[in-house]
Amino acid sequence: MHLRNALGDDILEIWFGITEAFWLLVTLDADLVEITLRSLYVTLTALIVSSGIALPLGALLAVRRFRARRITIAVLNALMGLPPVVVGLIVYVMLSRSGPFGVLGLLFTPTAMIIAQVIIIVPLIASIAHQALRELWSDYHDLLISMNTTQTQRVQALLWDGRRALLTAALAGFGRAIGEVGAIMVVGGNIDHHTRVLTTAIALETGKGEFALALGLGFVLIAMAIAVNLAIHMIGQTERGGRW
Fold first, then answer.
1. Which candidate, 158, 153, 165, places its Cα nearest to that of 128?
2. pLDDT tens for each residue of 6-58
3. CB-based contacts of 71: which residues, under 8 Å, 6+ apart?
4. What pTM was estimated for this model as a whole?
5. What is the spatial distance between Cα 240 and Cα 244, in angstroms, rounded to a whole number?
6. DSSP 8-state symbol, 58
């Protein structure tokens, strides 16, 4: 009987937490909105910076042949599996007071979190972009060579004509970054109203036993993940259908 009552209490607590979480979403709770907007700011900024680095890099690796090309591609693929907490540790050391960039005072700021996310998702976006553009380059190679185009023009042509595949790569990077917690916790510190984002807030609220806010934030994170995956699927279907 005691076990049954305890189980019933747990179910009621979970149900109450889910109900309260939906209420927070419907009423646009101030803390939930603030944390969500900060997460989007950090992740979208990191995505823009990463795309500016990774997409041209992927196109360049597809177009240009040089001695260390295979090694560069191998290293890039290997960095996709780099543990995020290790990235956080490296960025922490670099930005700490005793580190080479400590004078900038960036540790425990959104900027530090953006730097960590950029390091994490650049290899992912670049690798996906390279794989997609490599196939496109095999189709465009003879044409662009015969037109006597420069390397910059070839890269630009690939980036434009491969924009659907590149958008998929960018969305994959967004999905990886928005769900990151290890590196963000290390370099951001999870400071309330300053560096607290969706993933770190969920970890904190769960530890405190505040399941309502944790579930509300979790629902937002799940919705973002579903939206990104649906967007990737739709872009993939459009690309296979030859439509834009």
1. 165
2. 445 556 666 776 787 778 778 888 888 999 999 999 999 999 999 999 999 99
3. none
4. 0.86
5. 10
6. H
Comparing CA positions, the residue from 98, 84, 105 lying closest to residue 200 is 84
Cα–Cα distance measured from residue 17 to residue 46, given in angstroms and rounded to the nearest whole number: 32
Is 94 strand, coil or helix? helix
DSSP state of 148: T
φ/ψ of residue 89, rounded to 5:
-65, -45
Q: d(Cα 111, Cα 100) in Å, to the nearest integer?
A: 16
What spatial distance separates the first Cα and last Cα of the chain, rounded to whole Å?
Answer: 62
Amino acid at 108: F
DSSP 104-137: G--TTSHHHHHHHHHHHHHHHHHHHHHHHHHHHH
Whole-Å CA distances, 142 to 75, 149, 155: 29, 11, 14
Structure tokens at 58: 């992927």
Phi-psi region of 105 (alpha: psi -120 to 50; beta: other; left: phi over 0): left
* pLDDT, tens digit (0-9, with 9 covering 90-100), for 161-215: 888 888 888 988 998 899 888 899 999 988 988 999 999 998 888 888 777 888 8
